[in-house]
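User: I'm preparing a small set of examples for a lab meeting where we compare how different chains pack in three dimensions. I only have the primary sequence for this one, and I'd like the structure in token form so I can line it up with the others. Please keep the answer compact; I'll paste it straight into my notes.
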Amino acid sequence: MATGTDGKIELLRRVPLLAGLGKRELEEVGRLADEVEVAAGKALMREGESGQEFFVIVDGTVRIDREGSRIRTLGPGDFFGEIALVDGGPRTATATTETASRLLVLGHREFHSLLDRHPTIQTAVLNALAQRVRNLDPDNC
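Assistant: Understood. Below is the structure token output for the 141-residue chain.
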């Protein structure tokens, strides 16, 4: 069940990616993001498919699989789906809810608007991308 505007702002305030944003910026993110509740076992994105959404986990856990093997489990405050939105390529992994989950979802245009308007979020997303590449590529120096 969706929360009211003040409740949504409080949810956003607890997301590490959005730490450092003021109330006005959080309200903007709240307008851009849809809050959805998803049952356990729901595939949110599939490896190899095109991607148009970015997800932030508010509550619950999401399993990330690549080539059929689990690579990580994400929880509240974590985000995923940014790679396909940044480079326009296919999804690099499959994401499936392990538990009933509450998510914030930003579409392609909203995601890029958020990055353009808030350099701190852009930096956080780029840092997360770099860390994920480093962790996944054993040949990385």
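A couple of notes for your slides: The CA atoms of residues 63 and 73 lie 5 Å apart. The chain has one domain: 5-134.

User: Perfect, thanks.
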